[in-house]
Amino acid sequence: MSQFKNALHNEYQLLQTLHDELALKAHLFKSEMKSHWEALEVKWADFKEHLGRAQVAAVDAGHEIDAASKPLAEALKNGFTEIKNAFKH
Asked: Distance from the CA of 69 to the CA of which of 8, 10, 43, 84 falls in 20 to 30 A?
């Protein structure tokens, strides 16, 4: 083999080895990222489910708070008014 062909063959071998190593790393990277993505998808689904539950609970709690706070606010208003009126006499 001529020196030129030998150098070209060596360069080809080097590039082939590098190519194969990078192809393997790229494949492994894709697999790793796919696994990471799938784990994140599970967390995303959990987040959306919990958020939905929280929204429902907030609406229910809002109604309960509203129902409980109105009589309490009215009682406080009446009590403060009575005390205020008592100072007038």
From this structure: 84
